[in-house]
Design brief:
Elements: H1 2-8, E1 13-16, H2 23-28, E2 36-39, H3 43-57, E3 61-65, H4 69-83, E4 88-94, H5 110-114, E5 120-123, H6 130-142, E6 149-154, H7 155-158, H8 183-195, E7 199-203, H9 205-209, H10 213-222, E8 227-229, E9 244-247, H11 254-262, E10 265-269, H12 275-278, E11 289-294, E12 308-311, H13 314-324, H14 331-343, H15 357-368, E13 373-376, H16 380-388, E14 397-398, H17 409-419, E15 425-430, H18 431-436, H19 440-446, E16 452-457, H20 462-471, H21 486-493, E17 496-500, H22 503-515, E18 520-525, H23 559-563
Parallel strand pairs: 1-2, 1-3, 3-4, 4-6, 5-6, 7-8, 7-10, 8-9, 10-11, 11-12, 13-14, 13-15, 15-16, 16-18, 17-18
Helix pairs in contact: 3-4, 3-17, 8-13, 10-13, 11-14, 15-16, 15-22
Bound molecules: thiamine diphosphate and magnesium ion.
């Protein structure tokens, strides 16, 4: 029933790891050759791979784990998908029904544990309910605001029998979708847009999810509205476009942050005003009215005041909104932004003999001609990848935004490559994050997934070290980090690798990686204490962005200031 349901839902790939309670399911898998099972080396890798697969393809990612420790190992990956609205379905084994509640061997209340981090979860106590549960779960994963679901199946349910009836539709009276946007709200929004002198679009992951690329472009071009994006909104609007002003937020472009500060109208589309994007909320967009388009009504007014909320799917709402927006120029406003951009070139790279991570990322951009899917870790490497690769292809950045999960990079890159075998997939890893899920190199080799890996090896938990440098008087507690010889590690796992220490080696190494038919690893020994700039210090407003390293860094001793913005 499980396999049959997966096939009916069009599933082609499952990332999993077996164990006692899911053995009956694994035993059935060979009868379903349509379902490609990929054996990961740790269940966290299965969840992240399903996540990367889902983000890259727009399909639902599926992962399987056994009860107890297997299910527990999925939790970080499920939480990660929850925070970034990624549709994945996790199937877990559970102890047999008579043992539930007895602390049986490998029993864990995984539905209890994942209740706050799933869109919905199920404990399937009746075999006949399985088709309905699967139908519902896939429907919920795909519709509205996507998210993770978990289906927990006791071992004896797997081996029970019932007739299989796959429902044609779901019956979920409590699940109401608002997709079209209220016409009166759309009218109000159009009026504000038509009257604005300094309008600014902030586009988030919702635009990527709803594939509202053409609609966003039409709005921006028709009314000449500059566009900035959140981290997860990157690539929903071509960064080469004259109206693109990059990413906003803590490590966003200075000119993007200035634009938010001076705008008289913010049109926020499919973004949730995360604190890394808004910085100090009370000082966010002080001069602007705010239109917020989001599919999830719970996001409206959650973090910032909103003048015109529109609940709906970004694509559907923009289609209607565009009809009511009149053509405009906003010449002075656009000129002002261009002026800021000229004076505050946030993507400048120092000319130096040192191997700078920004330079490495820029060269990956140049060699791949901006056509790769980039999957990042978390920390400095992530911010450099966001800033110095220019994303012109829709949906080409995969990154852990909401949860900020180190170790996401390698398994998510595997998932993206499995889902998009014809695309070039580069994994930009931190030396810390890479060591958290390094074991998935074995999966990559076993599956012949040609992932290209670039480790930004600074010998530090770099982003935390940067905070210690700036805010804790350079006390580098627990951030210096040794690692193995990553090239030897690669070879031991069965893929080729190169170590790069000098600028002139960068491009040849990237080209070698690209020419290799299989996976390839490059260990870039980057400048250890390079920092990410621009930076809006924790607690500061977007307009207080620091562009250059200060000689005497301001030390924040007030721990309350840090508490809202933990790394
Ligand atoms: C699982 C997890 N643990 C801890 C953190 C806190 N954290 C954020 S960035 C960072 C440093 C990451 O180091 P590395 O992977 O080497 O990347 P770098 O910043 O050096 O590029 C840490 C520890 C996290 N985000 N995720
Ligand atoms: Mg590091």
């Amino acid at each position: 029933m499980v396999c049959e349901s997966l096939v009916r839902e069009g599933v082609e790939v499952i990332f999993g790891f077996p164990g006692g309670t899911v053995l009956p399911l694994f035993d059935t898998l060979p009868r379903y050759p349509q379902l490609r099972h990929i054996l990961v080396r740790h269940e966290q890798g299965a969840a992240h791979a399903a996540d990367g697969y889902a983000r890259a393809t727009g399909k639902v990612g599926v992962c399987i784990a056994t009860s107890g420790p297997g299910a527990a190992n999925l939790v970080t990956g499920i939480a990660n998908a929850h925070l970034d609205s990624v549709p994945i379905i996790a199937i877990t084994g559970q102890v047999a029904r008579p043992f539930i509640g007895k602390d049986a061997f490998q029993e864990l209340d995984i539905t209890g544990i994942t209740q706050p981090i799933t869109k919905q979860n199920y404990l399937a106590l009746d075999v006949a309910s399985l088709p309905r549960i699967f139908k519902e779960a896939f429907y919920l994963a795909r519709t509205g605001r996507p998210g993770p679901l978990l289906i927990d199946i006791p071992r004896d349910v797997f081996i029970d029998q019932a007739e299989f009836h796959y429902p044609n539709k779901v019956d979920l009276p409590g699940y109401k979708l608002t997709l079209q946007g209220h016409p009166a709200q759309i009218k109000k929004a159009a009026k504000l847009i038509n009257e604005a002198q300094c309008p600014l679009i902030i586009a988030g992951r919702g635009v990527n999810i709803s594939t509202a690329y053409a609609e966003l472009k039409e709005l921006a071009e028709k009314a000449q509205i500059p566009v900035v994006t959140t981290l997860l909104g990157i690539s929903c609007f071509p960064e080469s476009h004259a109206l693109s002003y990059g990413m906003l937020g803590m490590h966003g472009m200075a000119y993007a942050n200035f634009a938010v500060n001076d705008a008289d109208l913010i049109i926020a589309i499919g973004m949730r005003f995360d604190d890394r994007a808004t910085a100090k909320v009370s000082a966010f967009a002080p001069n602007a009215k705010i239109i917020h388009i989001d599919i999830d009504p719970a996001e409206i007014g959650k973090n910032v005041r909103v003048d015109v909320p529109i609940v709906g799917d970004a694509k559907a709402v923009l289609q209607k909104l565009n009809k009511q927006v009149t053509s405009a120029q906003h010449i002075d406003w656009v000129r002002q932004l261009d002026d800021w951009r000229r004076k505050h070139l946030s993507t400048n790279i120092r000319d130096t003999d040192q191997l700078l991570p920004q330079y490495v990322i820029r060269k990956i951009y140049e060699v791949t001609r901006g056509e790769a899917i980039i999957v990042t870790g978390v920390g400095q490497n992530q911010m450099w990848a966001a800033q110095h690769y220019w994303y012109n292809k829709p949906n080409s950045l995969i990154s852990s935004g909401g949860l900020g999960t180190m170790g996401f990079e390698l398994p998510a890159a595997l998932g993206a490559k499995i889902g998009c075998p014809d695309e070039t997939v580069w994994c930009i890893a931190g030396d810390g994050g890479f060591q958290m899920t390094i074991q998935e190199l074995a999966t990559i080799v076993q599956e012949k997934a040609a992932v290209k890996i670039a480790i930004m090896n600074n010998g530090y938990l770099g982003m935390v070290r940067q905070w210690q440098e700036l805010f804790y008087r350079k006390r580098y507690v627990a951030t210096p980090l040794t690692g193995p010889d990553f090239v030897k590690i690669a070879e031991a796992y069965g893929l080729r690798g190169l170590k790069v220490k000098r600028n002139e080696e960068v491009v040849p190494a990237i080209e070698t990686a690209m020419a290799e038919p299989g996976p390839f690893l490059i260990d870039f020994k980057i400048e250890p204490e390079e920092n990410v700039y621009p930076m809006v210090p924790p607690g500061a407003a977007l307009s207080e962005v620091i562009e250059e390293p200060k000689k005497e860094p301001k030390v924040i001793t007030d721990s309350a200031k840090l508490s809202v913005s933990n790394i």
